[in-house]
Specification:
Elements lengths: L67 H12 L4 H17 L1 H4 L3 H12 L4 H18 L6 H18 L4 H17 L2 H8 L8 H17 L2 H7 L1 H12 L4 H18 L6 H12 L2 H12 L1
Helix pairs in contact: 1-2, 2-5, 4-5, 4-6, 5-7, 6-7, 7-9, 8-9, 8-10, 9-12, 11-12, 11-14, 12-14, 13-14
Length: about 300
Amino acid sequence: MAMALRPIDNELPTTPERPKKQAKVAVPIRKQPELCTNDENKAPLPTATADSTVDYVDSESLESIQDPESKIQSLIEGLDSKNWIQVCESLNNARRFALYHSNLLAPLLDKVMLVLVKAMKNPRSALCKTSIMASSDLFKAFGDKLFDPSTSDAFDQLLLQLLLKASQDKRFVCEEADKALNSMVGSLTPLPLLQRLRAYVKHGNLRVRAKAAVSISNCVSKMGLEGMKDYGLVNLVQMAADLVNDRLPEAREAARSALVSVYNAFTENEEQKQEAWQNFCQCSLSPIHVQSVVKFTIS
């Protein structure tokens, strides 16, 4: 009987036919243009900003306005504009009115000052700086008229903003505010200005306090002995004594300068200058303040 043959498992496997390679066709790839390059070896191209379109014009370069009577109404419309660039232009026009046509601007002075206050609070540096420059021209043009009841409140708000801006970190805003404060001291009578500045001697912001101290010192340097007495010699020395030990050097230096001005005026006609000054300080100040005040004024 024939036996069935078993399949042999150890046969060599058949090799499957390898697929033929497809011929590669070179397809040219179009290089996309670079939208933005960041080559550190190339200087970046300057970009135009809105602030760069605003011109900062010195007071000496401002010109009078042709036919100012017909343009005073458009000034108010420009100051009320929602377009901040137009507001800047109107502020420069307000400066021209102040310098050359102050009689036309006088009835609108309160409104213009409030616009300055609002502009100084604006985050746009160009608008802020232009308003500060305008305040300098108002000080020069109107002087003590800013103390009138009709503008007194607006002036107080303006003074606070100038002290705040002079305390900022933005250098060109800070420097312009310093100029405006100097213009204010140079244009206004010291006594009423000093009465307003004294409120900031104890301000919580150290820089505001220091800027106020500088303006106070500048005011005192313009006053004679009679003017100091009108304010109150004791109050004046006590105010300066409070600032002598302030945390900021700028405030301390301003306080010392103010004390020297008081000392020079007080002892001008005294034969025994140091003795007269020491007696006055001992009668007017606390023992803690007497030593430091006498030290800085006599040394």
